[in-house]
Design a protein that fits this description.
This protein is α/β, with parallel strands linked by helices. It has 13 helices and nine strands. The strands form three sheets. It has a five-stranded parallel sheet with strand order 2-3-6-1-7, with helices on one face. The chain has a two-stranded antiparallel sheet with strand order 4-5. Strands 8-9 form a two-stranded antiparallel sheet. Strand 4 (about 115-120) and strand 5 form a beta hairpin. Helix 6 (about 170-180) packs across helix 8 (about 205-220), helix 10 (about 245-260) packs across helix 11 and helix 11 packs across helix 12. The longest helix has 17 residues, at about 20-35. The chain binds adenine. Adenine binds near residues 8, 14, 15, 16 and 53. Belongs to the RuvB family.
């Protein structure tokens, strides 16, 4: 009898990312057989694809403790020493947004990862002295939105590097059906499919939309979520049939109206729509590129004909 929670606990329960699961299952089995910690793992890819969830699954499958933190939360070398000190041999330390570690923390991570020790200077001025901390052998699992954001020396210390992919509609349907079971909510396969279609390949989005649709279904006294109520709710939420929301459409429309569809720089786009450049780079652009609505060129980003068609804009009409 396994307790069902929104986050899967085992590789078998984890939906999608088939290639990664297949590889990781081998590394886990091999490490367990040798009674060694798993090699350090780097997971990279867009937000919401289940990097933290997968890290937790790996810890569970390795039967070790799972400790989580994030790059910005570790402000100084001493913070990292404190975290690593609490680990038992084989435990997993998960660092989300690992590209945002302060430089001086990143530098002490090198010896921690490679040889399981940390040398830091304790005290100030006359009392300053180096201290050598041996560490238990541990596994670092790092997550980042783009592998290119990591420095080369840090990236080189991960023995296992996995690129998370957007989920297919069929995979997301399975995620939605599974989550509906966890929420004790009835949904039919076409309803699940419609949520999946509009979730931009991202389980976090699918689960959020499922919750909102469930609210609409409940208030409408529907005992079952079907395609009709999904359509109604998501149209109200202005999530279109490609999963684009107001922000996505505003971005494409801004590029078209102000820059004739590009080429235009990322920071310029971000400033014009009132978003952080990092938000545009990590959350908006990757999906629009994935569905072929935007492309990258040497001179900047461009809107594609497919995006014009989707927005119902004639590409020749507003050319200068
Ligand atoms: N919930 C979020 N991501 C999931 C996944 N990949 N498999 C199962 N449930 C999930």
């Amino acid at each position: 009898q396994t307790e069902l929670s929104l986050r899967p606990k085992t590789l078998t329960q984890y939906i999608g990312q088939e290639k990664i699961k297949q590889e990781v299952a081998v590394y886990i089995e091999a490490a367990k057989t040798r009674e060694e910690p798993l090699d350090h793992v780097l997971l990279y890819g867009p937000p919401g694809l289940g990097k933290t969830t997968l890290a937790g699954v790996i810890a569970n499958e390795m039967e070790v403790n799972f400790k989580t933190t994030s790059g910005p939360a570790i402000e100084k070398p001493g913070d990292l020493v404190a975290l690593l000190n609490e680990l038992r041999p084989g435990d997993i330390l998960f660092i989300d947004e690992i590209h945002r570690l302060p430089k001086n923390v990143e530098e002490i991570l090198y010896s921690a990862m490679e040889d399981f020790y940390i040398d830091i200077v304790v005290g100030q001025d006359a009392t300053a002295h180096p201290v050598h901390f041996p560490l238990p052998p541990f596994t670092l699992v790092g997550a980042t939105t783009r592998a290119g954001l990591l420095s080369a020396p840090l990236r080189a210390r991960f023995g296992i590097v996995e690129h998370m992919q957007y989920y297919t509609e069929a995979e997301l349907s399975q995620v939605v059906l599974r989550s509906a079971t966890v929420f004790n909510t009835r949904i039919d396969p076409l309803g699940a499919r419609e949520i999946a279609r509009r979730s931009r390949g991202t389980p976090r989005v699918a689960n959020r939309l499922l919750k909102r649709v469930r609210d609409f279904a409940q208030v409408a006294h529907k005992e079952m979520i079907d395609q009709e109520i999904v359509d109604y709710a998501l149209n109200l939420l202005q999530v279109d049939n490609q999963g684009l929301d107001e922000t996505d459409r505003k971005m494409l429309q801004t590029m078209i109206n102000l820059y004739n569809g590009g080429p235009v720089g990322l920071a310029t786009i971000a400033a014009n729509i009132g978003e952080e450049t990092e938000t545009v780079a990590d959350m908006l652009e990757p999906y629009l590129m994935q569905i072929g609505f935007m492309k990258r060129t040497a001179r900047g980003r461009m809107v594609t004909p497919a995006a014009y068609a989707h927005l119902g804009i004639d590409p020749h009409k507003n050319k200068k």
